[in-house]
Structure formats: C-alpha cells, structure tokens
Amino acid sequence: MFTGIIESVGQITSLNSKQGDFEIKIKYQSSCLNDISLGDSISVNGICLTVKKFNKNFMYFDLSNETISRISELRVGEMVNLESSLRINSKISGHFVFGHIDGIAKLTRKDIKSRSEEWTVKPPKKLMKYISEKGSISINGVSLTVNSVQENSFKINLIPYTLEHTTLKNFNIGNKMNIEVDMLARYVETILKKT
C-alpha cells in the first residue's frame, strides 16, 4: 500500500522479455529511496512491483504479461514516479493507493492557471462511476484531488510542487497514464450490491 506522495523519479534503462514475462531495470537515487530490501513493494508509475534485486544505482523487477496488458506502455529511457510502500508509523499525506491499476486514461486538455495546470482527463467509461468531485484519484502513482466531473471526463489541478517533483510535468495532450480509482468508492459499490 502507498500514499501517492512521490519520493523520487527514476529512469527505465532496460525492459527485457524473459520466458514470457518481462524484467525491468530502473535507475534511481538511493538517497531518496532508502532502506530498500529484497521483496519490498515499490510503486512504479502507480504499479505495485516487487524488488527482486538492487544495488545503490539500480532496481530490478519482474512484470507479468497480465500486468503489461493493464498498464500504459513502458519505454526504455522513460522517467517514472517511485514511492516505497507505506510503513505503519508513516504519515499519510495523500490517500491510500494500492498499486493496482484500474485502467488507462488519456490527457485531453491542459490549461495553464497561473503557475498551476488544470488537466482534463478521459478515463475508461466503466471507471467514471467511481470518480467523484473532491474525491481522490491516482495518476501514474500521484495522489490527486478531482476538481470536477463531466459525463466522460474529469478535471484535476496540478500545483507547481507536484509538477516539479513528478514526471507529470512531461505530459502532453494525447499522452496516456495509469489510473487507480479511490478504493473507498469500490467498497461502497460492493456494499450497495450486497444490500
């Protein structure tokens, strides 16, 4: 489990197919992600991955075909958002993010508002019922608040700090992103179905 508060930005240096699955190698700053151990969960662009080996410069993860089929395309050279898993005594500054990608959304509009940016994002239609005004959403692992909801899209605001400290500053109209809806919305739906 994560909070959606990005600790560091890394770079994919290789992505290799291995016996039907994939191995991804990411260069990272050990000073930003300390206390990493084998088997730890790390959020990579919002995807919960398990550390299979690491050193002070690189981390390695396995990705199954199932994971690859559900996320936006990963490319060698791409910068990715990184967050280590939540610890019991950690401060929760964002919201509970599980690292289970619900779908791929597209940036359809970007408006500059002073030093911030307002984005219009189009998710898969089936996810719209989980997205509510002032609710939480994770985009490429970043915890964000939904400003408003339209029929087939929603708007978010990115403050200068978020743009400076995540890969979202590199996004352009048409780019795709991993999204995870707020798990509380899913629980509410499950409860309502059972009553």
Rounded radius of gyration (Å): 17 Å
**Can you tell me the residue ranges where pLDDT is under 50 for at least 5 consecutive residues?**
none
Q: What is the strand content?
A: 35-45%
Number of domains: 2
Largest sheet: 6 strands, antiparallel, barrel
From the helix content, strand content and strand pairing, which structural class follows? mainly beta
In the CATH hierarchy, what is the architecture of the largest domain at level 2? Beta Barrel
Oligomer: single chain
Globally, the shape reads globular
Q: What share of the residues lie within helices?
A: 10-25%
User: What is the terminal-to-terminal distance?
Assistant: 28 Å
Strand order of the largest sheet: 1-2-5-4-3-6
In the CATH scheme, what's the topology name of the largest domain? Elongation Factor Tu (Ef-tu), domain 3
Describe this structure in words.
It is a single chain. The protein is mainly beta. The chain folds into two domains: 8-84, Elongation Factor Tu (Ef-tu), domain 3, CATH 2.40.30.20; 103-194, Elongation Factor Tu (Ef-tu), domain 3 (Beta Barrel), CATH 2.40.30.20. The chain has three helices and twelve strands. The chain has helices spanning 65-70, 160-165, 183-194, and strands at residues 8-18, 21-27, 41-44, 47-54, 58-63, 79-84, 103-113, 116-122, 136-139, 142-149, 154-158, 176-181. The strands form two sheets. The protein has a six-stranded antiparallel beta barrel with strand order 1-2-5-4-3-6. The chain has a six-stranded antiparallel beta barrel with strand order 7-8-11-10-9-12. A hairpin with a 2-residue loop joins strand 7 and strand 8 (116-122). The chain is globular and about 45 Å long. It starts with 7 loop residues before the first strand and ends with a helix. The model has no long low-confidence stretch (mean pLDDT 92).
